[in-house]
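Record type: monomer structure entry
Structure origin: computed from sequence
Chain ID: A
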Amino acid sequence: METISLQELHQLAMNEVGTFLEKEGYEFLAINSEIKRSPQFVCVKNKVLYFVAVSACLYPVSPKTYDIELIKKVKIHAQKNKAKLYFAGVGFAHAEDYNIPLSKNNPYIVNFNGLKKII
């Protein structure tokens, strides 16, 4: 059983957040799927610019926690561009047992509670 890579985990998180943003009516201007390169989404909704930083984690790490230094850098970038900044933390765990490592082609549970406003 091959465990999931960090890039694959990040891509799963990007898919979750992208689907959420689309359903909420955001229009994508740019998407960056590199890990530790934020913002991952640059969007517009109601003529307002939004930056969304995405972070993926595995249980037992909380998806509510984020890299403070990275967010500080993105916050400066958002302020320069007069954009609102949001954080989207997405947690994953094996569907049958949270303590089993997440692997490819196995069911998983997603813990995503929407966007957290930074500025």
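Annotation 1: The chain has one domain: 6-117.
Annotation 2: The CA atoms of residues 97 and 108 lie 9 Å apart.
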